What we know:
Layout lengths: L1 H40 L1 E2 L4 E2 L6 E4 L4 E8 L3 E5 L10 E4 L2 E5 L4 E5 L2 E2 L6 E5 L4 E6 L8 E7 L5 E15 L8 E4 L4 E4 L2 E4 L3 E6 L5 E6 L2 E5 L2 E2 L2 E4 L8 E8 L6 E16 L4 E4 L5 E10 L3 E6 L11 E7 L4 E8 L8 E8 L4 E10 L2 H13 L7 H19 L1 H6 L2 H37 L1
Parallel strand pairs: 1-5, 3-13, 14-23, 24-30
Antiparallel strand pairs: 2-4, 4-11, 5-6, 7-8, 7-12, 8-9, 10-11, 12-13, 13-16, 15-21, 17-20, 17-22, 18-19, 22-23, 23-25, 25-28, 26-29, 27-28, 29-30
Helix pairs in contact: 2-3, 2-5
The structure holds 2-acetamido-2-deoxy-beta-D-glucopyranose.
The site of 2-acetamido-2-deoxy-beta-D-glucopyranose (NAG) has 2 residues, from loops.
Organism: Clunio marinus
GO cellular component, one term: plasma membrane
Pfam family, one: I-set
Amino acid sequence: MMIQSRCKFKLKRIRNALNRIIYSCLTYSTLIIGLFLISHRNVSAFEPDFVFPLENVTVAQGRDAVFTCVVNNLGGYRVSGSGSETGTPARVRISFVAWIKADAKAILAIHEHVITNNGRLSVTHNDYNTWTLNIRNVKMEDRGQYMCQVNTDPMKMQTAFLEVVIPPDIIYEETSGDMMVPEGGSAKLVCKSRGFPKPKITWKREDGREIIARNGPHGKTKSLNVEGEVLSLTKITRSEMGAYLCIASNGVPPSVSKRMKLQVHFHPLIQVPNQLVGAPLLTDVTLICNVEASPKAINYWQRENGEMIITNDRYLMTETENSMYAVQMTLVVRKLQKSDMGGYKCISKNSIGDAEGTIRLYEMELSKKKTNRYNNYDDISGANDEDNEAIRSEDQNDDSLFGTNGRLYKGLQGGDTNLINKASTCHVVILISISSTSFSFIISKILSNVL
Ligand SMILES: *[C@@H]1O[C@H](CO)[C@@H](O)[C@H](O)[C@H]1NC(C)=O
Protein backbone atom coordinates (compact mmCIF):
# COMPACT_ATOMS: atom_id res chain seq x y z
CA MET A 1 0.00 0.00 0.00
CA MET A 2 2.65 2.48 1.14
CA ILE A 3 4.97 1.67 -1.76
CA GLN A 4 2.13 1.94 -4.23
CA SER A 5 1.06 5.39 -3.04
CA ARG A 6 4.67 6.56 -2.99
CA CYS A 7 5.06 5.33 -6.57
CA LYS A 8 1.94 7.15 -7.58
CA PHE A 9 3.24 10.30 -5.96
CA LYS A 10 6.57 9.98 -7.74
CA LEU A 11 4.86 9.38 -11.08
CA LYS A 12 2.75 12.45 -10.57
CA ARG A 13 5.84 14.53 -9.86
CA ILE A 14 7.62 13.23 -12.94
CA ARG A 15 4.58 13.95 -15.08
CA ASN A 16 4.40 17.48 -13.71
CA ALA A 17 8.09 18.07 -14.38
CA LEU A 18 7.76 16.75 -17.94
CA ASN A 19 4.79 18.99 -18.55
CA ARG A 20 6.77 21.94 -17.33
CA ILE A 21 9.76 21.10 -19.55
CA ILE A 22 7.56 20.64 -22.61
CA TYR A 23 5.80 23.88 -21.88
CA SER A 24 9.07 25.81 -21.51
CA CYS A 25 10.50 24.17 -24.66
CA LEU A 26 7.47 25.28 -26.62
CA THR A 27 7.67 28.76 -25.16
CA TYR A 28 11.37 29.10 -25.87
CA SER A 29 11.15 27.67 -29.38
CA THR A 30 8.37 30.08 -30.35
CA LEU A 31 10.39 32.79 -28.71
CA ILE A 32 13.56 31.95 -30.63
CA ILE A 33 11.69 31.60 -33.91
CA GLY A 34 9.96 34.88 -33.23
CA LEU A 35 13.21 36.60 -32.39
CA PHE A 36 14.85 35.11 -35.46
CA LEU A 37 12.11 36.48 -37.68
CA ILE A 38 12.30 39.88 -36.02
CA SER A 39 16.06 40.02 -36.23
CA HIS A 40 16.08 39.20 -39.94
CA ARG A 41 13.71 41.97 -40.63
CA ASN A 42 16.11 44.65 -39.47
CA VAL A 43 19.69 43.52 -39.35
CA SER A 44 21.96 46.29 -38.23
CA ALA A 45 25.65 46.93 -38.49
CA PHE A 46 25.85 48.19 -34.92
CA GLU A 47 25.79 46.44 -31.61
CA PRO A 48 22.76 47.14 -29.46
CA ASP A 49 23.32 49.67 -26.74
CA PHE A 50 21.41 51.39 -23.98
CA VAL A 51 20.23 54.90 -24.59
CA PHE A 52 19.40 55.91 -20.99
CA PRO A 53 20.44 54.45 -17.67
CA LEU A 54 17.79 52.38 -15.96
CA GLU A 55 16.27 54.54 -13.24
CA ASN A 56 15.57 53.64 -9.65
CA VAL A 57 11.89 53.42 -8.86
CA THR A 58 10.21 54.10 -5.53
CA VAL A 59 6.61 53.08 -5.26
CA ALA A 60 4.06 52.70 -2.50
CA GLN A 61 2.93 49.17 -1.79
CA GLY A 62 -0.15 48.36 -3.83
CA ARG A 63 0.70 50.78 -6.61
CA ASP A 64 2.24 49.89 -9.97
CA ALA A 65 5.93 50.17 -10.80
CA VAL A 66 7.46 50.60 -14.24
CA PHE A 67 11.07 50.11 -15.33
CA THR A 68 11.93 51.47 -18.75
CA CYS A 69 14.87 50.14 -20.71
CA VAL A 70 15.71 51.89 -23.98
CA VAL A 71 17.94 49.91 -26.33
CA ASN A 72 19.04 51.03 -29.76
CA ASN A 73 19.95 48.66 -32.63
CA LEU A 74 18.16 45.76 -31.12
CA GLY A 75 17.21 42.94 -33.40
CA GLY A 76 20.05 41.34 -35.32
CA TYR A 77 23.51 42.60 -35.88
CA ARG A 78 26.49 41.24 -37.79
CA VAL A 79 29.07 39.77 -35.48
CA SER A 80 31.79 38.26 -37.71
CA GLY A 81 33.33 39.29 -40.99
CA SER A 82 32.19 42.44 -42.64
CA GLY A 83 30.02 41.01 -45.32
CA SER A 84 30.95 41.08 -48.97
CA GLU A 85 34.40 42.74 -48.48
CA THR A 86 36.23 39.72 -47.01
CA GLY A 87 34.03 37.20 -48.71
CA THR A 88 33.20 35.49 -45.46
CA PRO A 89 29.48 35.40 -44.88
CA ALA A 90 28.31 37.69 -42.11
CA ARG A 91 27.01 35.91 -39.04
CA VAL A 92 23.96 37.49 -37.57
CA ARG A 93 23.53 37.43 -33.85
CA ILE A 94 20.01 37.66 -32.53
CA SER A 95 19.72 39.98 -29.60
CA PHE A 96 16.87 40.53 -27.25
CA VAL A 97 16.09 42.19 -23.98
CA ALA A 98 15.74 40.17 -20.82
CA TRP A 99 14.55 41.32 -17.43
CA ILE A 100 16.21 39.77 -14.41
CA LYS A 101 15.67 40.13 -10.70
CA ALA A 102 19.33 40.48 -9.86
CA ASP A 103 19.27 39.75 -6.13
CA ALA A 104 17.18 36.61 -6.60
CA LYS A 105 19.07 35.66 -9.80
CA ALA A 106 15.72 34.97 -11.43
CA ILE A 107 14.90 35.60 -15.05
CA LEU A 108 11.62 37.46 -15.15
CA ALA A 109 11.04 37.92 -18.86
CA ILE A 110 12.66 37.49 -22.21
CA HIS A 111 11.48 39.69 -25.02
CA GLU A 112 7.78 40.16 -24.29
CA HIS A 113 7.38 36.80 -22.59
CA VAL A 114 7.09 36.66 -18.87
CA ILE A 115 8.83 33.56 -17.58
CA THR A 116 8.46 33.92 -13.86
CA ASN A 117 5.33 32.66 -12.22
CA ASN A 118 4.05 36.09 -11.27
CA GLY A 119 0.80 37.27 -12.78
CA ARG A 120 1.50 40.83 -11.73
CA LEU A 121 4.39 41.19 -14.17
CA SER A 122 4.16 42.13 -17.80
CA VAL A 123 6.54 43.45 -20.43
CA THR A 124 5.55 45.84 -23.15
CA HIS A 125 7.47 46.94 -26.16
CA ASN A 126 6.67 50.08 -28.07
CA ASP A 127 7.79 48.48 -31.40
CA TYR A 128 10.80 50.68 -31.51
CA ASN A 129 13.51 50.76 -28.84
CA THR A 130 11.68 50.96 -25.53
CA TRP A 131 10.99 48.01 -23.26
CA THR A 132 9.06 48.35 -20.11
CA LEU A 133 8.70 45.99 -17.23
CA ASN A 134 5.41 46.60 -15.47
CA ILE A 135 4.80 45.37 -11.96
CA ARG A 136 1.21 45.72 -10.89
CA ASN A 137 0.07 45.95 -7.30
CA VAL A 138 3.60 46.03 -5.95
CA LYS A 139 4.32 43.96 -2.84
CA MET A 140 7.13 44.23 -0.34
CA GLU A 141 8.74 41.08 -1.82
CA ASP A 142 9.14 42.86 -5.18
CA ARG A 143 11.66 45.21 -3.58
CA GLY A 144 15.21 44.78 -4.89
CA GLN A 145 17.59 45.06 -7.78
CA TYR A 146 16.23 44.75 -11.32
CA MET A 147 18.34 44.25 -14.42
CA CYS A 148 17.67 44.95 -18.06
CA GLN A 149 20.03 42.76 -20.05
CA VAL A 150 20.88 42.43 -23.75
CA ASN A 151 22.54 39.22 -24.84
CA THR A 152 25.48 40.72 -26.69
CA ASP A 153 28.89 39.14 -26.20
CA PRO A 154 29.88 40.16 -23.65
CA MET A 155 26.41 40.86 -22.48
CA LYS A 156 25.31 44.37 -21.65
CA MET A 157 23.18 45.19 -18.70
CA GLN A 158 21.96 47.93 -16.45
CA THR A 159 20.44 47.70 -13.00
CA ALA A 160 18.17 49.78 -10.87
CA PHE A 161 16.54 49.42 -7.50
CA LEU A 162 12.85 49.04 -6.80
CA GLU A 163 12.08 50.55 -3.43
CA VAL A 164 8.71 49.65 -2.00
CA VAL A 165 7.43 52.01 0.63
CA ILE A 166 4.37 51.87 2.86
CA PRO A 167 2.69 55.06 4.05
CA PRO A 168 2.50 55.40 7.82
CA ASP A 169 -0.42 54.03 9.75
CA ILE A 170 -1.25 54.23 13.41
CA ILE A 171 -1.71 50.99 15.33
CA TYR A 172 -4.77 52.02 17.24
CA GLU A 173 -4.78 48.99 19.57
CA GLU A 174 -1.37 50.00 20.92
CA THR A 175 -1.97 53.74 20.98
CA SER A 176 -3.30 55.76 23.92
CA GLY A 177 -6.78 57.21 23.97
CA ASP A 178 -8.17 60.14 25.91
CA MET A 179 -6.84 60.44 29.44
CA MET A 180 -7.81 61.95 32.75
CA VAL A 181 -5.23 62.78 35.37
CA PRO A 182 -5.39 64.67 38.64
CA GLU A 183 -3.44 67.89 38.69
CA GLY A 184 0.13 67.15 39.80
CA GLY A 185 -0.06 63.59 38.43
CA SER A 186 1.65 62.07 35.39
CA ALA A 187 0.53 60.71 32.06
CA LYS A 188 2.25 58.52 29.52
CA LEU A 189 0.90 58.99 26.01
CA VAL A 190 1.87 56.23 23.59
CA CYS A 191 1.63 56.27 19.83
CA LYS A 192 2.59 53.19 17.80
CA SER A 193 2.78 53.14 14.05
CA ARG A 194 3.66 50.95 11.13
CA GLY A 195 4.95 51.72 7.68
CA PHE A 196 8.13 51.48 5.66
CA PRO A 197 10.54 53.09 6.28
CA LYS A 198 9.72 53.11 9.98
CA PRO A 199 7.66 56.25 10.68
CA LYS A 200 8.86 58.98 12.97
CA ILE A 201 6.43 60.07 15.68
CA THR A 202 6.04 63.74 16.53
CA TRP A 203 3.87 65.12 19.31
CA LYS A 204 2.18 68.50 19.16
CA ARG A 205 -0.49 70.28 21.13
CA GLU A 206 -3.58 71.03 19.12
CA ASP A 207 -3.78 74.57 20.51
CA GLY A 208 -0.20 75.21 19.36
CA ARG A 209 1.14 75.68 22.90
CA GLU A 210 4.40 74.21 24.13
CA ILE A 211 4.78 70.75 25.59
CA ILE A 212 6.55 70.78 28.94
CA ALA A 213 8.95 67.92 29.62
CA ARG A 214 9.93 67.89 33.29
CA ASN A 215 11.84 64.62 33.45
CA GLY A 216 14.17 65.14 30.53
CA PRO A 217 17.96 64.99 30.79
CA HIS A 218 18.09 68.80 30.91
CA GLY A 219 15.44 69.23 33.59
CA LYS A 220 12.38 71.17 32.51
CA THR A 221 12.22 71.87 28.80
CA LYS A 222 9.52 73.38 26.67
CA SER A 223 9.08 72.73 22.98
CA LEU A 224 6.43 72.83 20.34
CA ASN A 225 7.32 69.36 19.00
CA VAL A 226 8.44 66.30 20.87
CA GLU A 227 9.69 63.21 19.07
CA GLY A 228 9.30 59.59 20.11
CA GLU A 229 6.66 56.94 20.55
CA VAL A 230 6.10 57.86 24.19
CA LEU A 231 5.29 61.29 25.54
CA SER A 232 5.83 61.39 29.29
CA LEU A 233 4.20 64.21 31.16
CA THR A 234 4.82 64.61 34.88
CA LYS A 235 3.61 67.03 37.57
CA ILE A 236 0.87 68.01 35.16
CA THR A 237 -0.70 71.43 35.60
CA ARG A 238 -4.09 72.61 34.39
CA SER A 239 -2.48 74.63 31.62
CA GLU A 240 -1.33 71.38 30.03
CA MET A 241 -4.89 70.24 29.60
CA GLY A 242 -6.07 69.88 26.02
CA ALA A 243 -5.74 67.79 22.91
CA TYR A 244 -2.42 66.26 21.95
CA LEU A 245 -1.66 65.02 18.45
CA CYS A 246 0.76 62.27 17.57
CA ILE A 247 1.80 62.48 13.95
CA ALA A 248 3.40 59.54 12.17
CA SER A 249 5.40 60.37 9.06
CA ASN A 250 8.01 58.54 7.00
CA GLY A 251 8.23 60.68 3.90
CA VAL A 252 5.51 58.67 2.16
CA PRO A 253 2.30 60.67 1.94
CA PRO A 254 -0.09 60.87 3.58
CA SER A 255 1.11 61.33 7.14
CA VAL A 256 -1.40 60.24 9.75
CA SER A 257 -2.21 61.54 13.17
CA LYS A 258 -4.17 60.60 16.22
CA ARG A 259 -5.73 63.08 18.61
CA MET A 260 -5.92 62.34 22.30
CA LYS A 261 -7.44 64.55 24.92
CA LEU A 262 -5.70 65.03 28.21
CA GLN A 263 -8.07 66.13 30.91
CA VAL A 264 -6.60 67.40 34.16
CA HIS A 265 -8.85 67.22 37.19
CA PHE A 266 -8.78 69.68 40.04
CA HIS A 267 -10.90 71.26 42.74
CA PRO A 268 -12.86 74.34 41.58
CA LEU A 269 -11.27 77.68 42.31
CA ILE A 270 -13.06 81.02 42.38
CA GLN A 271 -11.40 84.38 42.08
CA VAL A 272 -13.45 87.54 42.57
CA PRO A 273 -12.05 90.64 40.89
CA ASN A 274 -14.22 93.09 42.87
CA GLN A 275 -15.43 91.97 46.25
CA LEU A 276 -16.99 95.30 47.12
CA VAL A 277 -19.17 96.91 44.49
CA GLY A 278 -20.85 100.25 44.90
CA ALA A 279 -23.61 101.43 42.60
CA PRO A 280 -26.35 104.06 42.72
CA LEU A 281 -29.97 103.05 42.98
CA LEU A 282 -31.85 102.41 39.74
CA THR A 283 -28.67 101.67 37.79
CA ASP A 284 -27.67 98.23 36.50
CA VAL A 285 -24.71 96.55 38.12
CA THR A 286 -22.60 93.62 37.02
CA LEU A 287 -21.04 91.19 39.49
CA ILE A 288 -18.19 88.99 38.23
CA CYS A 289 -16.62 85.74 39.47
CA ASN A 290 -13.84 83.89 37.65
CA VAL A 291 -14.05 80.13 38.01
CA GLU A 292 -11.47 77.46 37.22
CA ALA A 293 -12.71 73.89 37.40
CA SER A 294 -12.21 70.56 35.69
CA PRO A 295 -14.21 68.50 35.06
CA LYS A 296 -16.72 71.19 34.19
CA ALA A 297 -18.53 72.61 37.18
CA ILE A 298 -22.08 73.70 37.80
CA ASN A 299 -22.00 77.39 38.62
CA TYR A 300 -24.75 79.46 40.22
CA TRP A 301 -25.45 82.57 42.31
CA GLN A 302 -27.01 82.98 45.73
CA ARG A 303 -27.93 85.86 47.99
CA GLU A 304 -26.09 85.77 51.31
CA ASN A 305 -29.12 84.24 53.01
CA GLY A 306 -28.77 81.23 50.72
CA GLU A 307 -31.62 82.24 48.45
CA MET A 308 -30.95 80.98 44.95
CA ILE A 309 -30.90 83.58 42.20
CA ILE A 310 -32.78 82.66 39.08
CA THR A 311 -32.89 84.48 35.80
CA ASN A 312 -35.85 86.83 35.49
CA ASP A 313 -36.42 90.40 34.31
CA ARG A 314 -34.21 91.75 37.12
CA TYR A 315 -31.36 89.25 37.05
CA LEU A 316 -29.33 88.23 34.04
CA MET A 317 -26.75 85.50 34.49
CA THR A 318 -24.19 84.58 31.87
CA GLU A 319 -21.15 82.33 31.66
CA THR A 320 -18.28 82.96 29.27
CA GLU A 321 -15.76 80.20 28.61
CA ASN A 322 -12.26 81.60 28.54
CA SER A 323 -10.44 78.29 28.21
CA MET A 324 -11.06 74.58 28.61
CA TYR A 325 -11.33 75.06 32.35
CA ALA A 326 -11.84 78.78 32.98
CA VAL A 327 -15.29 80.35 33.01
CA GLN A 328 -16.34 83.89 33.84
CA MET A 329 -19.65 84.07 35.66
CA THR A 330 -21.51 87.35 35.51
CA LEU A 331 -24.64 88.45 37.26
CA VAL A 332 -26.34 91.65 36.12
CA VAL A 333 -28.78 93.14 38.60
CA ARG A 334 -31.08 95.58 36.85
CA LYS A 335 -32.50 98.83 38.25
CA LEU A 336 -30.96 98.46 41.70
CA GLN A 337 -33.29 98.71 44.64
CA LYS A 338 -32.48 99.06 48.31
CA SER A 339 -33.33 95.40 48.82
CA ASP A 340 -30.65 94.36 46.33
CA MET A 341 -27.86 95.69 48.53
CA GLY A 342 -25.94 93.13 50.54
CA GLY A 343 -24.00 89.94 49.98
CA TYR A 344 -23.94 87.75 46.90
CA LYS A 345 -22.28 84.35 46.51
CA CYS A 346 -21.04 82.72 43.34
CA ILE A 347 -20.76 78.96 43.77
CA SER A 348 -18.96 76.39 41.61
CA LYS A 349 -19.34 72.63 42.10
CA ASN A 350 -17.76 69.71 40.26
CA SER A 351 -17.21 66.03 41.03
CA ILE A 352 -14.08 66.86 43.00
CA GLY A 353 -15.40 69.62 45.21
CA ASP A 354 -16.86 73.08 45.40
CA ALA A 355 -15.81 76.67 45.91
CA GLU A 356 -17.54 79.95 46.52
CA GLY A 357 -16.79 83.63 46.20
CA THR A 358 -18.57 86.52 47.90
CA ILE A 359 -19.34 90.00 46.68
CA ARG A 360 -20.83 92.83 48.72
CA LEU A 361 -23.02 95.28 46.90
CA TYR A 362 -23.56 98.67 48.53
CA GLU A 363 -25.50 101.73 47.58
CA MET A 364 -23.50 104.62 46.26
CA GLU A 365 -25.16 107.98 46.74
CA LEU A 366 -25.06 109.62 43.39
CA SER A 367 -27.11 112.78 44.13
CA LYS A 368 -24.70 113.84 46.89
CA LYS A 369 -21.68 113.44 44.62
CA LYS A 370 -23.33 115.52 41.92
CA THR A 371 -24.05 118.45 44.22
CA ASN A 372 -20.59 118.50 45.67
CA ARG A 373 -19.12 118.62 42.19
CA TYR A 374 -21.24 121.69 41.44
CA ASN A 375 -20.08 123.19 44.68
CA ASN A 376 -16.45 122.62 43.84
CA TYR A 377 -16.68 124.15 40.44
CA ASP A 378 -18.98 127.01 41.38
CA ASP A 379 -17.03 128.06 44.36
CA ILE A 380 -14.30 129.89 42.47
CA SER A 381 -14.35 132.69 45.02
CA GLY A 382 -12.30 130.49 47.31
CA ALA A 383 -14.75 130.85 50.17
CA ASN A 384 -14.02 127.62 51.96
CA ASP A 385 -16.92 127.14 54.29
CA GLU A 386 -16.76 124.07 56.50
CA ASP A 387 -19.52 122.27 54.75
CA ASN A 388 -17.69 122.40 51.46
CA GLU A 389 -14.49 121.14 53.04
CA ALA A 390 -16.31 118.21 54.52
CA ILE A 391 -17.81 117.25 51.21
CA ARG A 392 -14.47 117.58 49.53
CA SER A 393 -12.68 115.30 51.96
CA GLU A 394 -15.46 112.77 51.59
CA ASP A 395 -15.01 113.05 47.89
CA GLN A 396 -11.30 112.41 48.27
CA ASN A 397 -12.01 109.45 50.43
CA ASP A 398 -14.20 108.11 47.73
CA ASP A 399 -11.55 108.72 45.14
CA SER A 400 -8.85 107.03 47.16
CA LEU A 401 -11.18 104.13 47.70
CA PHE A 402 -11.60 103.93 43.96
CA GLY A 403 -7.96 104.65 43.23
CA THR A 404 -6.08 102.28 45.51
CA ASN A 405 -8.70 99.67 45.22
CA GLY A 406 -9.38 99.95 41.54
CA ARG A 407 -11.28 96.68 41.75
CA LEU A 408 -14.09 98.46 43.49
CA TYR A 409 -14.31 101.05 40.84
CA LYS A 410 -14.45 98.41 38.18
CA GLY A 411 -17.38 96.92 39.99
CA LEU A 412 -19.51 99.76 38.79
CA GLN A 413 -20.43 99.20 35.20
CA GLY A 414 -18.13 101.11 32.90
CA GLY A 415 -20.96 102.54 30.90
CA ASP A 416 -22.72 103.89 33.95
CA THR A 417 -19.71 105.71 35.39
CA ASN A 418 -18.94 107.27 32.08
CA LEU A 419 -22.48 108.39 31.82
CA ILE A 420 -22.41 109.96 35.26
CA ASN A 421 -19.09 111.67 34.59
CA LYS A 422 -20.25 112.95 31.24
CA ALA A 423 -23.47 114.23 32.73
CA SER A 424 -21.69 116.20 35.43
CA THR A 425 -19.05 117.54 33.05
CA CYS A 426 -21.81 118.64 30.76
CA HIS A 427 -23.53 120.52 33.53
CA VAL A 428 -20.32 122.26 34.46
CA VAL A 429 -19.63 123.25 30.89
CA ILE A 430 -23.13 124.66 30.54
CA LEU A 431 -22.76 126.55 33.79
CA ILE A 432 -19.41 127.97 32.74
CA SER A 433 -20.70 128.90 29.34
CA ILE A 434 -23.77 130.50 30.91
CA SER A 435 -21.62 132.46 33.32
CA SER A 436 -19.23 133.50 30.54
CA THR A 437 -22.12 134.66 28.37
CA SER A 438 -23.60 136.65 31.21
CA PHE A 439 -20.13 138.00 31.95
CA SER A 440 -19.63 139.17 28.36
CA PHE A 441 -23.19 140.51 28.43
CA ILE A 442 -22.37 142.54 31.50
CA ILE A 443 -19.10 143.76 29.95
CA SER A 444 -20.89 144.79 26.78
CA LYS A 445 -23.57 146.49 28.89
CA ILE A 446 -20.91 148.40 30.82
CA LEU A 447 -19.08 149.26 27.63
CA SER A 448 -22.26 150.50 25.94
CA ASN A 449 -23.04 152.57 29.05
CA VAL A 450 -19.59 154.06 29.03
CA LEU A 451 -19.58 154.86 25.33
C1 LIG B 1 19.58 53.43 -6.88
O1 LIG B 1 19.37 52.77 -5.64
C2 LIG B 1 20.52 52.14 -5.11
C3 LIG B 1 20.12 51.34 -3.89
O2 LIG B 1 19.25 52.08 -3.07
C4 LIG B 1 21.56 53.21 -4.81
O3 LIG B 1 22.73 52.61 -4.28
C5 LIG B 1 21.88 53.95 -6.07
O4 LIG B 1 22.76 55.00 -5.80
C6 LIG B 1 20.63 54.51 -6.71
N1 LIG B 1 20.92 55.06 -8.00
C7 LIG B 1 20.49 56.24 -8.39
C8 LIG B 1 20.86 56.67 -9.76
O5 LIG B 1 19.83 56.96 -7.67
